[in-house]
Design goal:
Distance between the termini of chain B: 38 Å
Distance between the termini of chain A: 7 Å
Oligomer: heterodimer
Number of helices of chain A: 7
Radius of gyration of chain B: 12 Å
Low-confidence stretches of chain B: 22-27
Low-confidence stretches of chain A: none
Strand order of the largest sheet of chain A: 1-2-3
Structural class of chain B: mainly alpha
Shape of chain A: globular
Strand content of chain A: under 5%
Radius of gyration of chain A: 18 Å
Helix content of chain A: 55-70%
Order of helices and strands of chain A: HHEEEHHHHH
Mean pLDDT of chain A: 92
Shape of chain B: elongated
Helix content of chain B: over 70%
Number of strands of chain B: 0
Number of strands of chain A: 3
Strand content of chain B: under 5%
Number of helices of chain B: 2
């Protein structure tokens, strides 16, 4: 029986032992649903996103929501204090979460967050980077790869221009940001494995 | 369990959120 749910999109890592697996799942779903809706609202505001086919909009969101949330909620991972803030606002130390079963994924999330925050991006830069994260033509199930690719290229060019304009002496920031994309993919894969384990053994 | 996003009910949430916008437009 699972006693802990070490995901910051949950209100708390403690699971009510009296609840059924389905009940735990429902409660978890209710806690992360608003954040997912925000990702969808964000996607709708990306110029050109709504022009993609509905199938491709859904495919991009299905594949990329975790990565977008990881970027948006990077600040929940406090690398200095070694704590994670859950949606309830309560902080839990890494040691506590480790004792609850958190493993490599947590470490990788900390590493990613620390590096992303160190880039000190503005809100506009972060939004554009998040759009680049979401609009990736190589996600599975994309019907019209050319359309998604064209939008992706437009967004990458816009991000490059913005970074060059804001940080003319730090051109490596753009490269560093692009290198975050494969990092996010790896985190997404690790997270998917955790989800599978959770669903099989809720 | 090959699709974690579907397992989470993510697709349903995403579809509803996207459709909501269409409804708004119709209104």
């Amino acid at each position: 029986n699972r006693m802990h749910l070490v995901c910051p999109m949950s209100l708390t890592p403690y699971v009510d032992p009296c609840k059924s697996g389905h009940g735990i799942w429902e409660e978890f779903s209710m806690s992360f649903t608003p954040a997912v809706r925000e990702v969808v609202e964000f996607a709708k505001r990306i110029p050109g996103f709504r022009d993609l086919s509905q199938h491709d909009q859904v495919s991009l969101l299905k594949a990329g929501t975790f990565e977008v949330l990881m970027v948006r909620f990077a600040s929940l991972f406090d690398a200095k204090e070694r704590t994670v803030t859950f949606l309830s606002g309560k902080k839990y130390s890494v040691d506590t979460l480790r004792s609850m079963g958190a493993g490599d994924l947590l470490n990788s999330m900390f590493e990613f967050s620390e590096k992303l925050i160190a880039l000190q991006l503005s809100e506009e830069e972060m939004s554009l980077f998040t759009a680049v994260v979401l609009v990736s033509a190589d996600r599975s199930g994309i019907e019209n790869v050319n359309s998604v690719e064209a939008l992706q290229e437009t967004l990458i060019r816009a991000l490059r221009s913005l970074i060059m304009k804001n940080h003319p002496n730090e051109t490596s920031i753009f490269t560093k940001l692009l290198l975050k994309l494969p990092d996010l993919r790896s985190l997404n894969n690790l997270h998917s494995e955790e989800l599978l384990a959770f669903k099989v053994h809720p | 369990f090959a699709d974690p996003a579907s397992n989470l009910g993510l697709e349903d949430i995403i579809r509803k959120a996207l459709m909501g916008n269409l409804d708004d437009k119709q209104d």
